[in-house]
Input
Amino acid sequence: SSNSCSLTNLSQSKTEAFKGGSEVKIIVFGATGQVGSALAERARGKTQDWRFIARNDFGGDFLDLRSVTELLDREAPDVIVNAAAMTEVDKAQTEPDIATAINAQAPGVLARYATKRGAYLIHLSTDYVFDGLGIAAKTEDDSISPINVYGKTKAIAEQAIFEQKCKACVLRLTWVYGVNHPNFVTGTVKKLLSGQQVMAFEDQVGSPTAATDIAEVIIKLVINHENSVTITGLYHFANSGYCSRFECARFIEKCLGERATGMISAIQTSSVKLVAARPLNCRLQTLKIQDALNVTPRSWQEAMVEAVDYLTPQW
Output
């Protein structure tokens, strides 16, 4: 159950953190995304002033940077969480200008605001800033070398944020899945339940990471900031353990038991003509964030069991 996750046992510390003290105004960009919606769910009923902004809200469109700046000036948030991005990797490859505006330029605008107003910026990045070579888990000190437009735009954002020297925490994530969004996990469950074939890469290895667990980390960062322990710098977060996409699909199949009527086929990345290159090694080393926040990420299997349990009755 989710109670065994050390990240979810925060409700007590949350209420304590907000007794007395002034309200902190938090703006979240990307309200309808995987992490944004998990965060909205988790933040419901919290005492701080959380404001979730979707792409179609005024000031939420990262292709209109002036409106983003106007929104920030008007709302004057103390904390900005950037969970907005153009995450469709192949689409980013074919529409690099749009990907650059949303993934690279907009975070720079947020960072400039944070510098000017002393706000705290929490920005979500990706393992795709790495080239995916080797088998070692990447640390925050490893050099980056993105192999597609999506990774390049996210790398530019990281650099822009750190150049601003604002109070910022950049959180690199990997293989994120939210239960109410289209992604590898939800797609696999759907296909297996409806007797379809699942093609899963056996040479891409990483950690499937639940959006709910990322939301808990963000809430913990906000609470620490409230309590004058502002965590800044670059951090990696993922559920613990690693698997290939194929192993992940097989695990989902095992969770579904006899309800799984679809077939899983293992394939190699090189055998599929993808628009954008994919890194094969997506392993992230998460010791730094564990140390900074005193958290132990759940295993990817534990989080996956919970996700599959949630998804199965729906279909």
